[in-house]
Amino acid sequence: MEEKRNLRKVVDRERSKQCPWTQVLRCCTQCLSSCSQAYQRSRNSISELLNTTSLWQKMLKVIRGKFGTSVLSYFNFLKWLLKFNIFSFIVNFFFLVIPQLTVAEKNTLLFTGLEFFTGVGHFRDLVMYYGFYTNSSI
C-alpha cells in the first residue's frame, strides 16, 4: 500500500512539472467531454420522453408481444393513416374552409334532419359540402 502511495506521489510530481499549456488543454478536453456527455444525456432523455408520449405505445407493445411483428406492422400502418388524415384535415381546413367562410353568405334555410340522408336543403349551402363552392376566385 505504501508503494502505491509513493508511486502516486511521483506521478503527481511529474504531472506538476509539465508545461502549463498541457493543463489548459486538459481543462478544455474535460470541458468538451462534459459538454458532450450532457448533450448525450439530454438527447437520450428527450428520446425517452418522445417514446413514452408516442401514440398508443403501450398497446402496440402488448400487440407485438402477443401477436408478433407482422400484426404490429398493420397497426403501425393504421396509426400512420390516422396521422395522415389529421394532417390532410388541417391543410383542407386552413386552405379551403376558412377562406370560404370569410366570403360566405348567411345560410337561412331551416334544418329538418332529413338533410343527413339526402344532402340537400340546409347542407347544400354549407362550406363542408361541395355544392357551396363557386367557380369564382376569392
TrEMBL record:
Coiled-coil ranges (or none): none
Membrane-spanning parts: 80-101
Keywords: Membrane, Transmembrane, Transmembrane helix
GO cellular component: plasma membrane
Molecular functions (GO terms): mechanosensitive monoatomic ion channel activity
Protein name stated in the entry: Transmembrane channel-like protein 5
